[in-house]
Description:
The structure holds 2 protein chains of 2 kinds. Chain A is of the alpha/beta class. Helix content of chain A is 39%, strand content 16%. Chain A has 3 domains: 1-28; 32-131 and 234-336, 3-Layer(aba) Sandwich (D-Maltodextrin-Binding Protein, domain 2), CATH 3.40.190.10; 134-230, 3-Layer(aba) Sandwich (D-Maltodextrin-Binding Protein, domain 2), CATH 3.40.190. Chain A is built from 12 helices and 14 strands. Chain A has a 5-stranded mixed β-sheet, with helices on both faces. Chain A has a 3-stranded parallel β-sheet with strand order 4-1-5. Chain A is globular and about 80 Å long. Chain B is α+β, with helices and mostly antiparallel strands. In chain B, 66% of the residues lie in helices and 9% in strands. Chain B has 11 helices and 8 strands. Chain B has a 4-stranded antiparallel β-sheet with strand order 1-2-3-8. A two-stranded antiparallel sheet of chain B has the order 4-5. Chain B has a two-stranded antiparallel sheet with strand order 6-7. In chain B, β6 (230-235) and β7 form a beta hairpin. In chain B, α2 runs antiparallel to α10 (334-346), α3 (104-118) crosses α7 (249-275) and α10 (334-346) packs antiparallel against α11. Chain B starts with a helix and ends in a 5-residue tail after the last helix. The relative contact order of chain B is 0.13. At the A-B interface, α4, α5, β9, α6 and β10 of A face α1, α4, β6, β7 and α10 of B.
Amino acid sequence: MFKYLKQLTSLVAMVAVLFTFTTESMAAKKSKTLKNTQKKGFVRCGVSQGLPGFSNADAAGNWTGIDVDVCRAVAAAVLGDANKVKFTPLSAKERFTALTSGEIDILSRNTTWTLSRDADIGLTFVGVNFYDGQGFMVRKSSGITSTSQFKDGISACTNIGTTTELNMRDFFNSKGIKYEPVAFEKADEVVAAYDAGRCDTYTTDKSGLAAQRTKMSNPDEHIVLPETVSKEPLGPVVRQGDSVWEDIVRWSLNTMIEAEEYGITSANADMMKTSDNPAIKRLVGAEGELGAAFGLDNDWSLRIIKQVGNYGESYKRNIADTGILPDRGPNELWTKGGILYVPPAR
Amino acid sequence: MNFKLKDIVPQLITVTAVVLVFGFFTYNAQINMENRGIDFGYGFLSQESSFDVQFSLIEYDGSHSYLRAYLVGLLNTILVSVIGIIIATILGVIVGVARLSPNYLINKFAAFYVEFFRNIPLLLQIFFWYFAALRALPLPQDAEAIFGVFFLTIKGLYVPAFIWQNFSVFFNSIVAAIIAIIVIRIYAKRVQENQGKQIPVFLISIGLIFILPLLSFLIGGVGVSFEVPVLKQLATTSFIYEGGVSLPPELIALTLSLSLYTATFIAECVRAGIQGVGKGQKEAAASIGLTPNQVLKLVIMPQALRIIIPPTTNQYLNLTKNSSLAAAIAYPDLVLVFAGTALMQTGKAIEIVSITMFTYLTLSISISLLMNWYNKKIAIQEK
């Protein structure tokens, strides 16, 4: 009898341990970053020092751009107000240190997702908000219309601390062309040096070329060559080790893209609550308990769509209407011939 | 040995405090890096860097290691510092002496130069010399040849390259000339001390340094030819010079701004040094029959140097450290190549920043030691 009692006690103890373990892990879901963000009352977001269309501040200090909208979406989801974001402009060189050291909580700064960045330096990429590729800009008067006309001795201006520097080497090496890399710390200086005639070509992501071209003294004198020499999937990044925060940022971005897929816009989001389509109802919080998984209420995704808009609205507002890249190219939904495809929110 | 407790205790406390503070930061960094899944280590130095650098004194491309990239950056920093220090010293001495000139125009011009250049932030001056000069310089195809062989263009200064035959003979002839000059100087000093006779060492030295290398050309089989840069077309409006040696505009702009800026401070040191020597010294020297040249060389300068050297050492250190502003205009120095690109590509922030800091510390301390040695050499030797 005594023997059985002992076994029973250990069983009870085991169950108790298991139970504590489950409650413990449920509590841990409330992530440290989320808790800190809610306590502070704003999302700390790292952006570029000024790249029209992606993250750019106007004279009054208001930030706009599709990278900015990702942070606004997260703020709308976790704080209920898309304006509760503190933007920190960062150079390419500073950006990862700022994130890993905890100065910012989201890095949304046209950053290319690569294996070594994802695996090596304490970062996690949560998705892609712009599919880009590296290109070259030259002066129209040079008569160059294709990268195949590049010759030995060409000088190329670019930024330091980017994948561009590495791709440039791969590209020129594979073509067997000797080149002179001129790498600056800030994009504005790259543009100034190229514009002055220091370099024959300016190379960076094609979206960046299109945006920087608008800053040249005479934009019409320059063309972006048709070739794309690399894959540059740009997306938001978070610190490694806070999987709940990672999920929040990932699904804030996914919500914007999926909302476009189902035709939910900032204007019609409220009306969509009565839709017949359960997928739409889930996205606007009228069905299911999706927010609970991150420790958020059920209207988190509705707030994103209402305050920031869907991906298409953000693209149109920031990139198409500003004349940077009117054609969405690969950044069109998969249903319309592009490659934007996100997992379902359910 | 007679230690007193009250002497030791404060020192012990200081040492303990320093160790504790360092320990705390190291421990903190370790914990934080562990939490964020960042490894610490210097193993990356042997990995392939896979990025190219514009300008390098040693053979380098992206297939070399990060360690090699570090050396490239370090040598570029040393290059710009050494050239900068030499130009700043020459210019500083000239301007410093000019400020004491009785000639109104020279005097005021030197004063204007000093006040103008030392009161504008260095970074602005670097930007000015780089971007203003870039805008002002011609494109390669429009450049006028200077002396028929130099080309100053927006893409850099192109100079002819020397192509040597039997370079080692030429080099040895210069070494021989220098050794001969040292021997003659020692001999001349001894002759003067023993017999009071003066030997024209300066003229002999000049003769030697020219004649010996000249002999190497005439009978040593040394030959030199020049490779003059030639214009090459890359595209309709895009040209470049090939052959010869090209100095990137980034190097020129950086050297120019660093030396113009630092020379103002050195000029002030020189002026203070010369003014610091009492007027009586000069008059006394003249009264014992020394020529004005001898007065300057034997009486004024040895005393002035004692005042000039210590603050000038500071200026040399400043110039070396200021060279890190190179990153702003794409001159591939240590900060741009190593603490910039390499840091970004590896993400090893703590390792790379610590190496860079240690390197600048070593550079500065080396300059300091050298200058302290020189200072000691010219200090008053009490007999």
